[in-house]
Amino acid sequence: MQGSTSLTLQNSVSTDQALPVGTSRRKRPPVSEWLLFLLFIAPNFILFGVFSYWPMIQTAYLSGVRWDMISPTKRWVGLDNYRYLWNDDTFRQVLVNSFWFAIGAVGGSLVLGLAIALLLNQKLRFRDFARAAVFMPTLLSGAAIGIVWVYIFDPRYGILAGFLKVLSVNSPSWLGDPTWALPAVIIVYIWKNVGLATVIFLAGLQGIPRDLYEAATVDGAGRLSKFRNVTLPMLSPIMFFVVVTSILSSFQAFDIINVMTRGGPVDATNILVYYIYQQGFVAFNAGRAGAASMVLFVIMLAITLIQLRFSERKVHYG
Amino acid sequence: MASVQYHHPNRNRSKVDPVRILSYLAMAVVVVLIMVPVFWMLSGSLKTNQEILTFPPQWLPRNPQWHNYSDAWNAAPFGRFYLNTIITTAAGTTLELTNAALTAYALAFLRFPAKNLVFILLLAALMIPEQVTIIPNYLTISDILGQNWINTYQGIVLPGASVAVGTFLFRQAFMSLPREVIDAARVDGANHLQLLWQIVLPMAKPVLVTFGLISLVAKWNDYLWPLIVTNQDRMRTLSVGISYLYNPESTVRWGPLMAGTFFVIAPLIVIYLWAQKHIIEGITSGATKS
């Protein structure tokens, strides 16, 4: 749902043009209109205050205390929780896992999504059906679908093992094997999310003006050359959007991992959100969970700011 | 794989184009890969335990075990899970839509001196991910105004009831509505709530429907927060309930378990079949309008 961060710059630019309803004369707006404005935005912003802004500050505070979430006193320990994370092998592995999970999940959805979009952008029969099918997993509960995939991955009777058998390959014990567990959850994540990239790319492809391709044809360009010189450059803003939003949502992945592996085996699939959950609600270590939350927040904020910066440049020079 | 389609109305029609054949093949492969897990779930939900444990796996059950569905239904309070999910989804979606519409209306049509500050606050809200605030929110919900909201509907719904993305989408839609209609209604003496309810929302219905559906899907599948804020079976939603039904430490009875996962995803598949176009449109609009 980070979808609209890129809309916001244009929005704030045009704020001043929002003329009031029904006033032709330029007068200072009456105080009653200000009050009405505040009244209208109040429910939304009270909830933001209670469940977003204030908790964010609390998270920052918690990252500096030692607390088991039960005892009445919190002990201030400064940067100790961050120092602990910095020196902790598990947390290092969590960061590495999160990185590879993001690379695998985003790379996979991007490449496959683009390939499928190019495929379905042709005038083929049944392509609407194919598009609908590819998009469907996006809407399904990650918790439910995770369970189905555990059954698929089972090395003794799963359908994947059966398929590998046909190819005379022995199935690894996917979710029980530290080497294969992360690739396995990445596969599930890609399966579930590739449809999102596909439909966004399809919308982008349909927005490329026809005459560009016609001009390229006149110049004698082949299919590959058209792809490289017309499709890719015209699609690059959307690609950027897909990359950024997929990175952000991959960092938020939780349901699939909690159901399929609970971060294991031996932390092989433990990624940031899972680590926060584990520290907070399994180990009851509010301080470490808070510090890990701050790490996640800073990473996601950095990515979002890069996106805003880039979209801004696009608005100005594009 | 083939690239974009170029129109040559008179060419390539009579001849068989190898690229086209490859494209159809590729399309078939993609659809099969996407559909196999769903098929595997459905076929597993009708198998006996014996059939599930055979290798190589069988595609179809010999004797469909329909009782797996009633077994699943009795293994956990699925009726209650449905009720909880419907209540939290309906309330959550309604509140999101209301908040988005009210805030967007204020931003689009009402004058206020510090509107830019409001925009900055909305952006800030957009940048605070839910996962980062779960611990303080859990503490808040377990002691809010002297009450414990763990295992309550308001505890599940309220933290996710405010909305930034939807507000931006709605505002954009409201700003593009024909000004004259709104002005005319204003001259006729309509107040702002009437304007919003009778003029603006009906005209902005497409964005209302698309965002409503997206919000509905997200609430239905929401997992992390309902998991944290409930610890009794009777308050669990479908997603959380099904994840407790699967226990890797004991012998898993896959047949009823697959039937259970079907209970979770079936309603969304029905909604998708019915409103596919709106959902896809809503999801893509954020990307392509930027």
Task: Give structural notes.
Chain A is mainly α and 318 residues long. Chain A has 13 helices and two strands, in the order H-H-E-E-H-H-H-H-H-H-H-H-H-H-H. In chain A, helix 4 runs parallel beside helix 8 (178-206), helix 10 runs antiparallel to helix 13 (286-317) and helix 12 (272-282) packs antiparallel against helix 13 (286-317). Mean pLDDT of chain A is 87; it is low at 1-18. Chain B is mostly helical and 290 residues long. Chain B contains 14 helices and no strands. In chain B, helix 3 crosses helix 14 (254-288), helix 4 packs across helix 8 and helix 9 packs antiparallel against helix 10 (192-203). At the A-B interface, helix 1, helix 2, helix 4, helix 5 and helix 6 of A face helix 1, helix 4, helix 5, helix 6 and helix 8 of B.
Oligomeric category: heterodimer
Strand tally of chain A is: 2
The assigned CATH architecture of chain A is Orthogonal Bundle
CATH domain topology of chain A: MetI-like fold
Shape of chain B: globular
What fraction of the residues of chain A are assigned to beta strands by DSSP?
under 5%
Mean pLDDT of chain A: 87
> End-to-end distance of chain B, in Å?
28 Å
Terminal Cα span of chain A: 25 Å
Radius of gyration based on Cα positions of chain A: 24 Å
Question: Which architecture of the largest domain in chain B does the CATH hierarchy give at level 2?
Answer: Orthogonal Bundle
What is the CATH topology of the largest domain in chain B?
MetI-like fold
* Count of domains of chain B: 2
Q: Can you tell me the residue ranges of chain B where pLDDT is under 50 for at least 5 consecutive residues?
A: none
Structural class given helices, strands, pairing of chain A? mainly alpha
Structure summary, number of beta strands of chain B: 0
